[in-house]
Amino acid sequence: MAKIISTIHRATEYLSHDLFGGPRVLSFNWVINFQKGMTLFWVLGLMFFYENFSIQAWVYLALHGSYGVIWILKDVIFPDSKWQTKITFGGGLMAILAVLGPYWVAPYLLISPVLGEAHFGANNLWMAIAICIYALGLTLMLTADAQKFYILKYHRGLITTGLFRFIRHPNYLGEMMIYAAFAMVTWHWIPWVILAWVWLGYFSINIIMKERSMARYEEWVEYKRHSWYLIPYIL
Q1: For residues 72 and 35, is the Cβ–Cβ distance under 8 A?
Q2: CA distance 211 to 215
Q3: pLDDT tens figures, 44-66
Q4: How far apart are CA 35 and CA 100, in angstroms?
Q5: CB 3.0 to 4.6 Å from 130: which of 109, 181, 220, 233, for a disulfide?
């Protein structure tokens, strides 16, 4: 299993960083920031093009649109070194097509008439739940990334305090909650399939490789024994 995971990781690294070869001229965060920053305009454009100004559309715009702006602010204030690497144009294209681009399917399904007039998205109760999940997920992601950035800036090592005291990957959990909220507002199974692909095919591999890296520290065994993977007392 470990060999399979390593092979998948190498394949995804090649596809997202070196596809088609050539010089690495793009910074990975430029590609990510472009997609996330343009989401606000994508959703707003869909609303005007299809003349859909339902409460579900406005809520989706507020959630996913604000997330894109917040992500860019986060990248400016406390950037994640993982996304500062250089990639080829092919790698950037693959990142858009395989991971980032499919995130735009959810608002298209919600706002366009492709699913029929009967489909209008989540009701008020589920939208309220989605907003709460989004807020909690955003707090988790931002707090975890800020904690990681400022601790590692002054002291390299295993982070076992704050949010990382209880779960080892709170930033991933936060982002999963954020996109789950978007899927809930859309109220269709297709966004969940896309999220399953990203979570299982990309997030899970990154988390496994991160845990392998963390295992080199002496305190890893004790830390792992008293913390959870993503959700306290569950996983």
Answers
A1: no
A2: 6
A3: 999 999 999 999 999 999 999 99
A4: 7
A5: 181
Question: What tens digit of pLDDT does each residue of 93-110 get?
Answer: 999 998 899 999 999 999
Backbone angles phi, psi at 87, to 5 degrees: -135, 165
Dist CA 173 CA 206 (whole Å):
13
Distance of CA 231 to the CA centre of its chain: 17
3-state secondary structure the chain: CHHHHHHHHHHHHHHHHCCCCCCCCEEHHHHHHHHHHHHHHHHHHHHHHCCCCCHHHHHHHHHHHHHHHHHHHHHHHCCCHHHHCEECHHHHHHHHHHHHHHHHHHHHHHHCHHHCCCCCCCCHHHHHHHHHHHHHHHHHHHHHHHHHHHHHHHCCCCCCCHHHHCECCHHHHHHHHHHHHHHHHHCCHHHHHHHHHHHHHHHHHHHHHHHHHHCCCCCHHHHHHCCECCCCCCC
**Pairwise CA distance, residues 41 & 53, whole Å:** 15
Residue whose entry in the numeric block shows the structure tokens 């399979």:
4
